[in-house]
Design goal:
single chain; Uridine Diphospho-n-acetylenolpyruvylglucosamine Reductase, domain 2; Uridine Diphospho-n-acetylenolpyruvylglucosamine Reductase, domain 3; 21% strand
Length: 251
């Protein structure tokens, strides 16, 4: 049975702070998603990341289901000076999605994708993997620029720039990002696009992380598929001069 005396959790100054059970109960009451402690059901999945050599272990995980939940978690971390990280797909090789002894927001419960084929836009939750988006958009013969690996998280890929199969044709993922909804460090939920909060939007499009917690991505879509041509073409080495000459002329 879990202790009811609270927990010690990593702080921003490198130390730890005591979080009382009352404070945990208040946070729990403010969020619809679960608070997950070590040993709880679902803990192992919540801390599972791509690079399994990373040994970071959070003290507490919140699994938000909405921007409102994210706001509550950010407020909790800010008031306590608590170290916090965000896990989208967990694909970052350095394991930055896990806050050692801190608070991790596991966005896996925010995986909704809605597609408007008429205006060619897709609204994508921050917990989505690339496959979630491709599956939804391909129902309409549409796609946006994402990465190469279907298990990658949309959020981390996009905030880092986003290079993939369609980049040479349509630009980077951030070139196709039309708008975000984001919870700032002050706990304010705002919309950022090229007209509203434009400087924040500029920073988000390739600036990495730490500018806030994105709770919705809106991507521009393009006609792609559902049938595509691709694959590997090989020629005999004795045709190298001919093939390279043709490739040069073509490019």
């Amino acid at each position: 049975m879990r202790a009811t005396t609270g927990i010690r959790i990593a702080s921003l100054d490198g130390g730890t702070v005591e979080v009382t059970q009352g404070e945990l109960d208040t946070l729990d009451a403010r969020v619809e998603g679960p608070l997950v402690h070590p040993g709880d059901e679902g803990w192992d999945d919540a801390v599972l990341i791509w690079n399994r050599t990373v040994a970071k272990v959070p003290a507490l995980i919140v699994q938000p289901t909405s921007a409102r939940d994210v706001t509550a978690a950010v407020d909790f971390a800010r008031r306590g000076g608590i170290l916090m990280s965000i896990k989208g797909g967990g694909h970052n090789i350095a394991g930055t999605s896990l806050a050692e002894r801190g608070l991790t927001l596991d966005m896996s419960r925010m995986r909704r994708v809605t597609v408007d084929p008429d205006v060619r836009l897709a609204n994508v939750g921050p917990g989505c993997l690339l496959r979630d988006v491709d599956r939804a958009t391909q129902e309409h013969g549409l796609a946006t620029v994402l990465g190469f690996v279907s298990e990658t998280g949309v959020a981390g890929l996009t905030l880092g720039g986003g290079f993939g199969y369609l980049t040479r044709r349509f630009g980077w993922a951030v070139d196709n990002l039309e708008e975000v909804e984001i919870v700032t460090a002050a706990g304010e939920t705002v919309v950022a696009n090229r007209e509203t909060n434009a400087e924040l939007f500029w920073g988000l499009r390739g600036g990495g992380g730490n500018l806030g917690v994105v709770t919705r991505f809106t991507f521009r879509l393009h006609e792609v598929g559902p049938t595509i041509t691709g694959g590997l073409i090989l020629w005999s080495a004795d045709r190298a001069d001919e093939v390279l000459r043709t490739y040069r002329d073509l490019t």
